[in-house]
Structure prediction request, 364 residues.
Amino acid sequence: MQENFYQELDPKVIFTDGDFKEFGESRGYTFGQVPYHRGRKHFLKFLIGKIPEWRGCYSKKWLSKEIPQAYKIVISFVYSPITLLWGHWISTKKKCRHIVHIADHCDLFLEPRYLAAISSATSLLVISKKMKVLYEKETNRKDIKVFHNFPDNRCFPKKDIVETSDISFSYSSPLIVTFIGGLYESLHKRSIEDIILAISQLRKAGSPIELHFYGQRSPKSFLKEEIASEGIVHHGLVLPLDKKYEIMRNAHAFIVPSSFDSEINKDYQHSFPTKLTEFIATAKPILYYGPANTETNDFLEGIKGATLINEESIDLLTKHFQYLIKNYAQKKTDAMQDSMQIRLEHNMDETLLRFHNHLSEVSM
Prediction:
């Protein structure tokens, strides 16, 4: 998402996820692992400025060494309250404006010290309409803007014509159902397991279908046994990130799971998968499996090529995949209409213009 939004700019990028260290540094990005290990043995590294953070304290030495330049704006694209506070601290030390862009909501963001950083930001951006309503209430701000990912032109099919003839699948050439992104126990449990079970059972019974996962699992123990099931293929983290376009071209359909766990849903209902508009752009069917009260469900309600299953049911999942195997051409035709709709409603050039205009306003 960030590469999409900043493709015409030349920002100084700091990333915090160690899983992307090699990839990020190959792009010239600066790696600053926050939060870092809290062990006492790392205190010396903190004192000499080798690491940016230790037990909630931030290193001026690390900042002056890694980011010596002056900037007008610091943008914090955040999934966690810890990185929010770090971005706030950097903007304070650099004496520049701070834009907070919240990618995933959690209740911690509403605790006093985090909410203070959000409320004091020069600009507050969120990733969904539902999130906007929540933060308007909590911050009393009326200037919150929604910016979520738009589909890159590489997502759209090269042809504007969909084959209307029947598309048949076989055991050796199955329907490929795909998930792209991190699989998190804190987001996807009590959802993704049912999808795995339904597809695995169908595959064992002879149905021409496979489920392919692309992304890391967190924790690594999550789904360890399930992904070993028949018909399930876990490819792990795939880099460079541009490979996702090839993966999307090879997929026949996509899944978007959302946890039925009420505690997880309380937070995650406000979030919005960054690849959702990209999936729609590919003109391929989408399955959403999760509660009806999420932003994702609301967004997909107007998408003809999407199927929404809002109750926990292996039987409903099985029937959906059986229907998709037999009626794929029809669902693909519906999905082509969605692709043309998303190109108009979430146009890349128009979204970038709106975003860059906002940056210009904030930097004045």
